[in-house]
Amino acid sequence: MSASFLAAVSASGQGLKYPAAPSDGTVDIYFGESVPDPFRPLENDTSAETAAWVEAENALTGAYLAKMPQRAKILKRLREVANYERVGMPFERCGKWYVYANDGLQNQSVLYQMDSLGAPRRIFLDPNKLSDDGTVALKDVSFSNDGKYVAYVISRSGSDWEEIFVREMATGRLLADHIEWAKFTTVAWRADGFYYSAYDAPEKGRETSAKNEVHKIFFHKVGTPQSDDVLFFHNPCFPLRFYDVSVNEEETVMFLYESGEGNGNTLYVRDLRVPDSRFVQMTDNMDFQYSPVEVVGDSIFLMTNDGAPRNRLMVAALASPARHAWREVVPEDGSVLENVTFVGRDKMLLSYSRDACSHAYVADLSGRRLREVEFPSVGSAAFSAKRGRGECFFSFTSFTVPSTIYRLDVETGDSRAFARPKVNFDPDAYESRQVFVTSKDGTRVPLFLTYRKGLKLNGRNPLLLYGYGGFAISMSPYFSYSRIPFLESGGVYAVACLRGGSEYGEEWHQAGTKMRKQNVFDDFIASAEWLVANGYTDSAHLAIMGGSNGGLLVGACMTQRPELFKVCIPQVGVMDMLRYHRFTIGWNWAPDYGTSADSPEMFRYLRSYSPLHCLRSGVSYPATLVTTADHDDRVVPAHSFKFAATLQQCQAGQAPCLIRIDSKAGHGGGKPLGKIMEETADVYGFIMYNIGMKVRR
């Protein structure tokens, strides 16, 4: 262990002594400009020095969190409110019905099988039995079209790396088939095998950090070893692209998707009815999205934002599928067309987002609207249906209503509850409202607020502001038990719908990308200032939180306006904007961010807001809890490691700057419920402790 590690950095307040991180004299040169990166050794997440620093930081953070009286009370309440049955939308495959359900405190939801809709459920696949601690997650299941097999995809400890297994349907027997090193894959069945996407096995010891290049598609025949799998497609001329295929249920049409170097994808189609057929290119512009929805005879229905930033539905002929020959079915309108679902013989469900809230219509195959689907209130909905079947379900949720499953009669428009959760929480005691904030450049930004009815605008309410603002992801209303202790204790929960998302289509997304990224931070800061100006809170009671790209958001805003916030929670954040593209699949974020290698202008712009590079000595930063995980191979933990080490070195104020590093966990997907509740108690405990809140109901 180096002498530099044995030293400790003293905090100026609360008696904390931060472990000194391993460092060296690294200086990078970008277009003739020097940029120091002293904590570069922390990028090696398997080194002994990094491991010792992680252990010391976790010990410090653990001791701090343990002394907070709020934490134990929050965890107790979380276990109470999370303990309710959660049921997904039923779906039919090969003559049987299936549904995911969780009886309350199970780490992972279980897949159940039913002989008919509403018949008794029996366990079909229980991922909780795949590990002792719930850290193996079921990512996907795919049934062969002849009903003989089911392939299921798992991930371990939250990693993006995936494995595929196969079971025989008639006997339930697990076959010897086992696929490793799959990533960002689907399972596309054809005849006696399936297609999947994978990378070459990474170098030992660098499984969670090495850059992933040359995505490949293989065909696996059931009953054979992976070593016999046939390489179906790869494109080494473009190593930084993703490739995937899909096959329709009739196995008459195959699509090939190519993405990774724009905000969309290119699309190819192959007529499997024709012997030795080849792929025909349908589109050639990766800046637009092209998503096949359904194949009806020789017609291909597709959603696209090509020529329609808020999306439209088009139809192409299989015989002449090129883009110029497509016909419009559902034109773009003022709302964002989010999804199209075929149901019955001749109906479609058109799902829209209007000011980030769901609206939906039943339409015929010509796109003519027949009726609007009525939802219980303002919130978010998603549909599950299948062409040729009349059964249709939708889920509905809001900030105060947990996800409820409804069965919809598309002919009459009537719906009735199929699965309604019973939560130990009184939603009628709370209200949600939407307001609109004016950003720095005059842009109108939606902001959702949820709080106990009768809230007094005294200017001192504890308030947690959440945001994301990137990658065309919309912040629509949804229920989470994790917020309940905070709301019950008098807190206000706010969600800002920032540019960079998809709330208003692709133009809204583009307005928060590359050299327009500052718009996202301006929108978030404007939301915080509005909340203060309108009496909801003040800077002494204002916390902000966000994950991944939202972690970048929090990091950028706390370095630009440290005096505005009391507590900051950057979760699994992208904090080093100059080097993010060098790890795993970080290169795929370049369409949103640009890279430091693009041009001197792009380098300087990234450096101007990069959280790691904007920290300054002598500044009083808010109380900060950085969170990351040892198996995060999406946003590698080095981002959070280097940011936390630098923040601890720079902090001049009294507030704590800590990092929580989870083990056997990744970017968040598939995390077991037990780990989720532990982290939630730590995060909300930290917020409430530093704001001065008491836990109450």
Q: Could you explain the architecture of this structure?
A:
The chain is of the alpha+beta class and 697 residues long. The chain is built from 12 helices and 41 strands. The strands form 10 sheets. It has an 8-stranded mixed sheet, sandwiched between helices. The longest helix is centred in the first third of the chain and has 19 residues, at 48-66. The radius of gyration is 25 Å and the shape is globular. Residues 1-13 have low confidence and may be disordered.
Describe the protein's topology.
Blueprint: H1 3-6, E1 8-10, E2 17-19, E3 27-30, E4 33-36, H2 48-66, H3 69-81, E5 86-87, E6 91-93, E7 96-102, E8 110-114, E9 122-125, E10 136-143, E11 149-156, E12 161-168, E13 174-183, E14 188-190, E15 193-198, E16 216-221, E17 230-233, E18 242-247, E19 253-259, E20 265-271, E21 280-281, E22 290-296, E23 299-304, E24 312-317, E25 327-330, E26 336-343, E27 347-354, E28 357-364, E29 369-373, E30 380-385, E31 392-397, E32 404-408, E33 415-419, E34 430-438, E35 444-452, E36 463-466, H4 484-488, E37 492-496, H5 506-510, H6 518-533, E38 542-547, H7 549-560, E39 567-571, H8 590-593, H9 600-609, H10 611-614, E40 623-629, H11 638-650, E41 657-662, H12 673-691
Parallel strand pairs: 36-37, 36-38, 38-39, 39-40, 40-41
Antiparallel strand pairs: 1-2, 3-4, 5-7, 6-7, 7-8, 8-9, 10-11, 11-12, 12-13, 14-15, 15-16, 16-17, 18-19, 19-20, 20-21, 22-23, 23-24, 24-25, 26-27, 27-28, 28-29, 30-31, 31-32, 32-33, 34-35, 35-37
